[in-house]
Recover the amino acids of this structure.
């Protein structure tokens, strides 16, 4: 149980939620695990819950407290609210800003600041932790270049310019990605990003990790009442979770890339976990996907200190924290959206 930005996150599995007076009560196997006053809460998000009492649902509906249900793996199931009020206002604001390119740029550039900043500090950590195994001078040069990109991103005024800066940062970061692979280098190498289809073992893992991350971010956005399909940098396209792709930009490197590198460098997966088809497509075996998913779920339980909130949370709650911060910015509670800046 974790309270964050007036949202109560319940991450223990098989918990039943009920009402006692003005308190939410958490129980498992008829044993009370905890209780918390509801009067200061805006939402309750439950992962892998057993159920919620009708009394609790009615209490929350009357007081505009959202009840949000996810699977234990983080897939969004439902969001129960009372009469439509704040949720409608929030989405209308999202749609208005999405239609305004200047307003979209002001939001989107913070996503990219977060992405480039996190890439920069991934490179800096490599120079600190593995100076004898990488080209330190090259890493430092790219790190300085990314710092200059961040300065340009902060003041850019068009989505076209923003995409160009993001692309240049990605090209320079990707040039060093292969050096961050420290083990199994004969079987795991990275020359360039290949998406549809992935053409090597590393790209197959990256594609899978990005898909998992996008789904986690989309669930977090739905949980706070935002429309995951209406973005600011990624424009509308049928069936594309554009806002989730926006928000996950700052987490790609620090969350997904680092996870893939750890799977290789810790030898969790090896060359036998991949299949190359006749057309050159590389896919993971069913057993490899199972190992990957298990490790992904374990990663989500690891604790970090959120750089903006200053609170200890699990990695799995980071997308939810960022979705809450984005919603608060759109509501006018924050002067700007604070990206996740890892160091």
């Amino acid at each position: 149980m974790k309270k964050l930005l007036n949202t109560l996150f319940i991450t223990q599995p098989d918990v039943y939620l009920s009402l006692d007076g003005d308190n939410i009560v958490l129980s498992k196997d008829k044993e009370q695990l905890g209780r918390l006053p509801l009067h200061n809460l805006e939402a309750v998000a439950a992962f892998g819950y057993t159920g919620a009492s009708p009394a609790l649902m009615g209490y929350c509906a009357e007081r505009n407290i959202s009840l949000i249900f996810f699977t234990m793996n983080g897939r969004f199931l439902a969001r129960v609210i009372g009469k439509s009020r704040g949720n409608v206002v929030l989405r209308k604001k999202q749609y208005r800003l999405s239609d305004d390119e200047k307003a979209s740029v002001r939001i989107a550039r913070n996503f990219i600041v977060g992405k480039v900043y996190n890439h920069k500090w991934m490179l800096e950590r490599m120079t600190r932790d593995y100076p004898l195994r990488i080209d330190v001078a090259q890493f430092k040069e790219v790190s300085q270049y990314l710092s200059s990109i961040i300065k340009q991103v902060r003041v850019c005024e068009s989505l076209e310019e923003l995409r160009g800066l993001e692309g240049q940062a990605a090209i320079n970061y990707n040039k060093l990605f292969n050096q961050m692979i420290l083990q199994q280098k004969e079987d795991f190498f990275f020359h360039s990003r290949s998406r549809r289809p992935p053409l090597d073992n590393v790209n197959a893992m990256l594609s899978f990790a990005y898909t998992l991350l996008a789904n986690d971010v989309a669930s977090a956005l739905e949980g706070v009442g935002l429309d995951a399909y209406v973005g600011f940098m990624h424009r509308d396209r049928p069936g594309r979770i554009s806002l989730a792709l926006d928000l996950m930009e700052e987490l790609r490197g620090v969350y997904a890339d680092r996870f893939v590198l750890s799977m290789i460098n810790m030898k969790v997966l090896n060359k036998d976990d991949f299949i190359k088809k006749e057309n050159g497509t590389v896919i993971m075996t069913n057993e490899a996907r199972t190992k990957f998913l298990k490790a992904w779920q374990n990663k989500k339980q690891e604790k970090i200190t959120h750089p903006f909130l200053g609170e200890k949370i699990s990695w799995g709650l980071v997308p939810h924290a960022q979705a809450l911060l984005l919603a608060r910015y759109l509501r006018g509670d924050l002067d700007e959206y604070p990206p996740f800046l890892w160091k």
Notes: Residues 6-80 form a domain with the Ribosomal Protein L15; Chain: K; domain 2 fold (CATH 3.100.10.20). The radius of gyration is 21 Å. The chain has two domains: 6-80, 88-112+182-331. Residues 115 and 331 are 24 Å apart (CA to CA).
